[in-house]
UniProtKB/TrEMBL annotation, chain A:
GO terms for biological process: amino acid transport. Pfam families: BPD_transp_2 (PF02653). It comes from Mesoaciditoga lauensis. This is Branched-chain amino acid ABC transporter permease. One of its GO terms (cellular component) is plasma membrane. It is found in: Cell membrane. Keywords: Amino-acid transport, Cell membrane, Membrane, Transmembrane, Transmembrane helix, Transport. It is a multi-pass membrane protein. The lineage of its organism: Bacteria, Thermotogati, Thermotogota, Thermotogae, Mesoaciditogales.
């Protein structure tokens, strides 16, 4: 029973983790907390719904189109809405993302209405069953798919950031835009790329979670809040921080839901996180900022 | 490709940097006023002056980081409106004030980013990394160490090494002696001399006038955004310099 809940927690947590990751990538490179992040993903879930359920296109093709659409949304938001004000007022960029949240919600409502639309799992086969002396663990195939995709995204992102010139340039821009320019790095381009990656990750998370939440304008609300929390818990700094943050929240949430109260699941887990942050304000893996002058 | 052809053309040019009536303003404050100077091929030229004289602003303007007026010609090409990130491709590299290394990246990655302009040429990068390790052995011993954990002197070596990775034709340095012990300053300036002798022209900005004069061919002394004195180091009257420079 406990193991079953922990496994379920890891699956939910892995979704929190990539949402956190998408937020952190954009934040580290451009310095913007994207409050519209979940809602940008929601639009992609509707794109999936439109192509797959309404037009009747192939599942995987619809999936790829919606992720590509997420990348496009990420690019457009950074290029069209944030960059024009970047050098004028950093604070207003955050307000812009809040405004965007409302616009996206309204747009989805206008186009697709507020019915809960259903989209199916990609994998519906016999669940994966693990029997051992302590009990039995059941993992639906879709959950294994989620875990696999999330893990691949994380590995790909780590390899990109550490092994390619462009990935290193991205880390350079995250540390100092001005110095990066002195190296010949086109920091505007790198910022665009970071939002493209972030947007694609958000779309992926939305399409993966959609079979459970259904597709509706506020479908990503919970995932966005938990993704933020995961990022904060991880220190809003690093990839490992986001992953550990996401998965710990997933597990805590599932255990609280099972053993304490389903209604209190979110409240209780957030309270635990507040407590952790009171003890360690820089987050689990964040570093206390020490600067050599 | 255009750039490559242009770089070939540059071989025959003697006056590599020519600045005419440079003006930099921060709002109503004029940091650099109508400044003109030049750097010849192979030269080591220093701009000296006290804090706030406009030296750093001059270099930042040349690197395209801040808005400026006036003409800046690099190898006879007007670069006053070229974007900052395109300037290193032309062979003009700024090693910024306070080193500006990337603290969360290791030594080797810092150097690789210095080679961003030649990133397609892996062999050349390998070769240049070895050259930098040859010049600064301490860096070679700390390849995998995070740059933020290096000592001040090592960070300065890293910043200079990084600036050399892309094989600049003119290396600009902003206060490389800042915050270093006299012994380290000597070491760094010896290295600069070596770099200059191997054919890279250097434009140096320094508060530490004595050490800068030891290695320079020519100097410009800046005061309130203008040049008070300029000339060949051998011809500079030390008393006048002291008067102007220290404001006595």
């Amino acid at each position: 029973m406990v193991f079953q809940q922990i496994i379920a927690g890891i699956i939910t947590g892995s979704l929190y983790a990539i949402v956190a990751l998408g937020l952190v990538v954009a934040y580290k490179v451009t310095g913007v907390m994207n409050f519209a992040y979940g809602y940008m993903g929601m639009i992609s879930a509707y794109i999936f719904f439109t192509f797959f359920s309404m037009i009747g296109m192939n599942y995987i093709l619809s999936f790829l189109i919606s992720v590509a659409f997420g990348a496009l949304v990420g690019y457009s938001v950074e290029r069209g809405l944030l960059r024009p004000v970047r050098n004028i007022s950093p604070a207003s960029m955050v307000i812009i993302t809040l405004g965007l949240l409302l616009v996206l919600e309204g747009t989805a409502l206008q186009i697709w209405g507020n019915n809960y639309q259903q989209i199916p799992n990609l994998l519906n086969g016999v669940p994966f069953i693990l029997k051992f002396s302590g009990g039995i663990i059941v993992i639906p195939q879709q959950n294994l798919l989620i875990l696999g995709l999330v893990a691949s995204v994380i590995v790909a992102l780590i390899l990109y950031l550490n092994l390619t010139f462009q990935g290193k340039a991205m880390r350079a821009v995250a540390q100092s835009e001005e110095i990066a320019k002195l190296m010949g790095i086109n920091s505007n381009l790198i910022m665009s790329i970071s939002w493209i990656i972030s947007g694609a990750i958000g779309a992926l998370a939305a399409v993966l979670v959609a079979p459970q939440t259904f597709v509706y304008p506020d479908m990503m609300l919970n995932l966005q809040i938990m993704g933020f929390t995961a990022a904060v818990l991880g220190g809003f700094e690093s990839i490992p921080g986001s992953i550990i943050g996401g998965i710990s929240i997933g597990i805590i949430e599932n255990l609280v839901g099972t053993y304490i109260s389903t209604n209190l699941k979110t409240t209780f887990s957030l309270a635990i996180i507040v407590a952790i942050l009171l003890i360690k304000p820089e987050g689990l893996l964040g570093s206390a900022k020490v600067k050599r002058v | 490709m255009k750039i490559e052809r242009w770089l070939k053309l540059t071989l025959a040019i003697e006056r590599i940097l020519e600045v005419e009536n440079l003006n930099v303003k921060y709002g109503p404050v004029e940091a650099v006023r109508d400044t003109s100077f030049n750097v010849e091929n192979g030269e080591l030229v220093s701009i000296l002056g006290s804090n706030g004289a406009g030296k750093s602003s001059t270099l930042k303007a040349l690197a395209g980081l801040i808005h400026h007026e006036g003409k800046v010609r690099f190898f006879e090409r007007d670069i006053s409106r070229v974007e900052a990130h395109r300037i290193p491709y032309l062979g003009l590299m700024l090693c910024p004030e306070r080193r500006g290394i990337f603290p969360d990246l290791n030594v080797e990655d810092n150097l690789l980013l210095g080679a961003y302009t030649i990133r397609k040429n892996r062999n050349l990068i390998k070769q240049n990394i070895e050259k930098v390790y040859g010049l600064f052995e301490r860096l070679g011993e700390r390849k995998k160490q995070l740059a933020g954990t290096l000592s001040g002197g090592e960070q300065q070596m890293l910043a200079i090494g990084r600036a050399l990775m892309g094989e600049p034709k003119l290396l600009m340095l902003d206060e490389p002696s800042l915050g270093l012990s006299p012994k380290l300053v000597d070491f760094i300036f010896d290295a600069l001399k070596t770099i200059n002798k191997s054919g890279t022209a250097i434009l140096l900005v320094e508060q530490n006038a004595m050490i800068a004069m030891e290695i320079s061919n020519r100097i410009y002394v800046m005061q309130n955004g203008r040049f008070a004195i300029s000339g060949n180091v051998r011809d500079i009257d030390f008393q006048t310099l002291k008067m102007k420079y220290l404001g006595v």
